[in-house]
Design a protein that fits this description.
Layout lengths: L9 H15 L14 H9 L16
């Protein structure tokens, strides 16, 4: 992401618009995710009212 676009509220505005759209469609829950090491995204989500629901480890295996 372009650093000039960070911390201007764009993501929060987009999230708000998405939540409004989802409510209009009858949705009662909104979910999102981020990598375990992405503390910026974690803090962003928490600051906008998300609650951590789970942590997972994904596995791959080359065949």
């Amino acid at each position: 992401m372009d650093e000039a676009c960070r911390r201007r509220g764009y993501a929060a505005q987009l999230l708000s618009a998405c939540e409004s759209w989802a409510k209009e469609k009858g949705c009662r829950e909104f979910a999102s995710d981020c990598e375990l090491t992405n503390t910026g995204s974690l803090n962003f989500h928490l600051s906008l009212g998300f609650q951590e629901a789970n942590r997972i480890i994904c596995f791959t295996k080359k065949l």
